[in-house]
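Example A, followed by Example B.
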Amino acid sequence: MSDTFYRKYRSHTFDQIVGQQHIIQTLKNAIENDRLSHAYIFSGPRGTGKTSMARILSKSVNCRNGKSSTPCLTCDICTHISSSQSIDVIEIDAASNTGVDNIRDLNDKVNFMPVECLYKVYIIDEVHMLSTGAFNALLKTLEEPPKNTIFILATTEPHKIPVTIHSRCQHLYFRNLTHEELTQHISFIAKKEGISIDDRSLDILARNAGGCMRDGVSLLDQMYSFKGDTIKVEDVLFILGTTEDKHLYDVLESVFNKDEKTVLEKLQNIFNDGANVMQLVSDLLTILRIILFVQLTLENELAIDDAQLTHAKKIAATITVQQTNTLLEAMAKTEMDLRWFSKPQLLLQSRLITVMHPQTEAVPTPAPLPQATATIKPVAPKPKPTPKPMPMPTPQPMAAMPPDMDGPAPTPAAPVPAPVINAQQQDVKLDKSSTVNWEKVINKLQDLKSPVHGVLRNSGVRGISDKHIHIKLKQDFKFFREKVSEDQHVQVINTLVKEIFGKALLFTIDPLNAAAVEAVPQNGAHPQTAGTAKPAAPQADEHAEQINEIVRLFEGTVI
């Protein structure tokens, strides 16, 4: 069985490493000046050379020809380390050796002297997977290891390593590889293998590698297995499950033009060709990044050809940076949600339609009155059914006044009337500006952090008469009416109404429906309006009358 490309072309010396010059120079100087640390943390994205660098360092300090930044690669030690057969260079997978017992075993063996090498090197891969107990067991050994022992901790998530471990190591961070570095190295491997591949295909492979050399080389290996010695753009697009950039630019142009039909048709054609939705979203994000850079006049920072630049400039000239950023955020969220969505094609189509027609919160518009001079007639509540008399003693009503006070008991006070107005004497009119102005009043109440903002935020205007503005509540409860009718709130609301409407109007709450209208006094008095009179105070015998009513209703007895 032949080796895969990424194993066959693994770097064996510092000079063969692609990129990471800051780390190469640091380690070379440490070797040449005999300034090696006893512990290193190699952190960075996957496929950027962490394990390869650890092996190169092991060969450099243990080569038979002496410690050097350029190992010979031919001695028995170098060949053993390259083939992972050295007894003194121990590679541990922390993902499968996470427990404290594994580290205790390491601590027991670390005290043995190297057998064939000058230095015993422990390479712990994915070290962040160790348990808390394992890290604690490693602490003391890591701080003061035996002479001629080097620890190299490799990880893609350095933030998961305890600070106590960090403080005992030199931390070297590996960066993502650039597009140019990836393209050159993939082209170098293709020439070594006798593979014919054009520049456009190399560009697509490097772009999809995402800064990871191993991913880029593995993609080349996959293409080679599929098409052999000759690789064309069509083959790369087919394997990746994507489409030509021109088609993606056409989709984006239709999105920004809000042409839903064309967007759905083009997407369906792409899906019919076998495109992978996850790859498609990734490519759309790449193109949106190009458009954003063009809008910000940063096209010199992009590694793109003239055709892509022409398409990007065409779209960038017709839209704003905000529009580009909005679609970027939508596609980024789509990429995250795709892994949980059972119908990925539908999700992408839905998100693009949403971007074309963003949902705005609709302001509730009150229903217009049937006529400009409509009347609102209070409806008397239905009479309560009389309980059927039972042959049992009638409970005595509770006394409303103490028995030692003279004079007849006062008559129970009438319920507090709801703040409605006598609409028969008012000419109530509604126009669009009234609704807009009332929304401004509500917004002002929110800015003032008024307690009644929550009550009025969903209210609407029913109309305006000569001296009143008529309001309806979404939830017409007595408590809400009484809260809004308090003097301090009434004064604030009337002041805002005068300021925004341009004239003095007293606001009054109209009933939402007939059931919301409470009893009106029968003495001919004019019904109260919010902001014009205080509700009457309940009398002392009101609670007694309520209790008696409950007793009569349930045919009970006061004990």
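Example B, a separate protein, is given below in the same form.
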Amino acid sequence: MNSQSANSYDVVIMGGALAGSATAILLLRRNPKLRVLIVEKSDKFSRRVGEATVEVSTFFLQRCLGLTHHLHQNHLVKNGLRFWFANERTQEVPDCSEIGGKYLSRVGAYLVDRAVLDQAALDRATDLGAELWRPAMVTRFDLEEGGQQRLTVARGEDSLEVSARWIVDASGVAALIARKQGWLRAHESHPTAAAWARWRGCVNWDDPKFLDKYPKWSKRCFGLRGTATNHMMGDGWWAWWIPLRGDEISIGLVFDQRFVDWGGGGTVAERLKNFLLKHPVGGELLKDAECVEGDVHFRRNLAYTCDTVAGDGFALVGDASGFMDPFYSPGLDWLAFTTYGAAQLILDERAGRSAAHGAATLNQNLRKSYRLWFDAIYLNKYEYLGEYDLMRIAVQLDIANYYMGVAIQPYFRGEVAFTEPCFSQKGALPFQWWISVYNRRLAAIARSRRRRGKLGRTNDGRRLLLGGFAFNAGTVWLLIRGTLSWIALEISEGWRTWFAATAEEKAPTRAREKEAAVGET
């Protein structure tokens, strides 16, 4: 190897996918004179999980990163969320209880092919002036609070010494800084795992042949079912169904390892398909599908957090700073808050403001946001995912609260909203408390049903088709309606759990004695 003299930059970003590229775009939009280096290990982005944006991440991609034209040209417009429930009485798709929109969505979102989106963001970053080393890999780095950060980068046959005032870790689940520093923590109270793959030959929800097969069912929805993010729901698990440009579908299963046994033989793709064929939706739409080779994955213990996400000289963004759960697609929202916070921290330091103070504030806000966000939405959520009537309440309240409390912020206030991550401000704490209370109560009711053998009794023949969510009084009405349904449920059934032990509410009753360590197989 050849040793070359040091290269000096203002910012070095480890990882050129969306989190790294977004950070570069945000920096160079506001300070084009910054010397920004992106180090990306791949020569080409490999296929990644099909992903859905939601309203906050859509605003971020369009109005902060300038990717509106790319999204329209290369990805599918998303038509909300749709959920499908089953029990022993469901045989075909129309038999399943259904939650979803009656019309097309009212606020924009997309179904995205991440490899394509990542490349578009990286191209925009380099167009704005970022320097790109690709393929290249950071083999060593040393953090120096308040000083120059030093890295060694392998690029071809060369080993290059690089220095920068700032390092940004955008390495995704590799979480290079957090793992090296010992900051990464598995979320042991939420031991979820996931298997996913791409498929061809799936039945099209909106194909005339399929609609003609079920004419009464087809007329219930005035929009499109197929371009929603469809979810198959079960006891302790859910599966996504995301169409991509062309004829490929991203399908994945996420499950709580305390509730679902992922045993059995065969490849990951075979086990995934066999599992989903047991659900009427999977059995009908996936039966003739063929797996696309080279895009099959399995990962244990999805949820993790980091003790530190920023310091005077470094910042962790996107999945390198933590991950909660894929349900409701919060990953890109978290990416937006972390990249915007990192960029603001660096820009403030370049303008002469205290980086130590800024890093302390960013650390406090992001760690608080992660903890309260997770506790409100995801803690014990998998206990009642498979219950139509409980999820009917949760979907109305969760999404309405998201619209009126979170998504409304950037649309009404602009980019400044990304400096205040979810639940990080005092004014949001009463709403966080309310959300955590009803989610905890729904989990307790599901736990009681499990003990009494009453799970899934409303999972056939029921339908909730919503008019859509927007930033207006209609969404407030959905909040009221969902709350009234919750109160009615408490009176009719919830009373059984009103005096349950606190410890029981905090942990699922079927918890395994042993939880797997953070890792991937």
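On Example B: DSSP finds 15 helices and 22 strands in the chain.
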